[in-house]
Amino acid sequence: MATLPPAPPATIYTVAEAAGVSIASVSRVLQGSRAVSDSTRSKVLEAAARLNYVPLGAARSLAVGQHEAQGLVLPMLTGPYYSELLVGFEARAAELGQSVVLALPDARRDPSQAVRALASRIEGLAVHGSVELPEAVLSGLGTVKPLLVIAGCVLPGLDAVGAENTSSARDLTAHLLAHGRRRLLFLGAPYPCDVRDRYEGFRLAHVERGLEPSEPVRVPVDEAEGVRFAEGFLAGDHEADAVVCANDELALAVMGHLAHAGVQIPDDLAVTGWDDVMAARYVRPGLTTVRQPVREIGELAATRLHERVTGAGPALEPVVLPTALVLRGSCGCPDPYPDPSSPCPDGRGRQRPSTGNERKMPDAT
Q1: How many other CB atoms sit within 10 Å of the CB of residue 140?
Q2: Among 229, 176, 171, which Cα is nearest to 200's?
């Protein structure tokens, strides 16, 4: 008895015919578009499962060990930090021949489900530490899909990429104390982990000098909270001669609102930030801050994710890039600061960059 030849593999055309819909509808459903009805989506998914249909891109990925898309999960796109991170990640992914699928799950009712849904559509996933996901969700996803955490808590078995926080925060706080400031506040909730580590540096600088650090002012790190803090400061709710902000967005909002109300920066209040966004260089007084390589973090995350998807195992240690203190007028130094190696009026020069486990990104393979 002759053996029948195997049935030809299903195509998008056969799925469309079986579901009784157009090819365009099949494509939209498989790409996760919401521009289709629930009924159409159900028909397409049922037909694809029954026919064992594998989209061409996924089939090519399985055949040659390459991948088509990387997933990136961010809490938001407001503010300069996340846009710079996205630019670095997307640019590097494009060099490697991959597209980027972006998710902003904090705007959804169920962030965990949103991330799981994204993970089903891509080959590798990078999640920013500011996205509030249970560790069990991240660890579980990491067992079935290459997963990397950006600027977050280090979890066993997961890759991590970020920047040094504690040493630079300690140097920044020590610099303010050397200026004679004694009533310092740290502005920013110690979640996620990078902000927690910055507060730890703030605390260490005090303890090393026999001083009692204040508890952090626990607020989200965005512009609206900076304005709200400034309003509270003007109303007498906070007593301070210096504010160490967890990021530049907070710091610039505090400076702008207080300056409009007649508060002299830094004479009445010294203000510092973190990130060294472009605006920090052009406000007056210039914003003293800590420069971290945001775009490079995005590039490195995309590179490492590509390595994982194409066969590399998890890194044994997180990759930590160095940061550097940038002194400008908002702390009491001359503005613009003429020479990073010259001393401030308190006799202290610019701090050395922090050390990190810096790693050169490999060429695309």
Answers
A1: 15
A2: 171
Q: DSSP H helical segments within 31-159, as ranges?
A: 38-50, 56-64, 80-95, 111-119, 135-142
d(CA 283, CA 143): 46
Under the banding of pLDDT at 50, 70 and 90, the label for residue 26 is: confident
First to last CA, the chain: 49
Q: Are residues 219 and 244 in the same domain?
A: yes
Residue 131 has pLDDT above 50, yes or no: yes
Q: Return the CATH number at 177.
A: 3.40.50.2300
Tokens 């660890």 belong to: 139
Angle at 269 between CA 266 and CA 274, to 5 degrees: 80
- Quote the CA–CA distance of 328 and 326 in Å, as a whole number: 7
What secondary structure letter does DSSP report for 157? T
Q: What is the DSSP letter of 275?
A: B
Better-scored residue on pLDDT, 188 or 351: 188
Q: What is the pTM of this model?
A: 0.75
Whether residue 234 is contained in a domain is answered as yes
Q: Indicate whether 189 and 97 sit together in one domain.
A: no
CA distance 68 to 162: 25
C-alpha–C-alpha distance, residues 111 and 105, integer Å: 5
- Sole residue written with tokens 């004479």: 267
Plot region of 163 (φ>0 → left; ψ -120 to 50 → alpha; else → beta): beta
Range of the domain at 227: 166-292+322-331
Q: State whether 242 and 104 are in the same domain.
A: no
What's the half-sphere exposure (Cβ side, CA atoms, 13 Å) at 264?
Answer: 3
H-state helical runs in 154-192: 166-178
Averaged over 146-160, what is the pLDDT?
89
Place of tokens 């580590």: 197
Domain total in the chain:
3
pLDDT above 60 (res 352): no
Give the residue carrying structure tokens 């308190």: 346
Average pLDDT of the segment spanning 326-334: 93
Residues 200 and 81 both lie in one domain? no
The CA-based diameter of the chain, rounded to the nearest angstrom, is 97
Among 160, 87, 131, smallest CA distance to 321 is for: 160
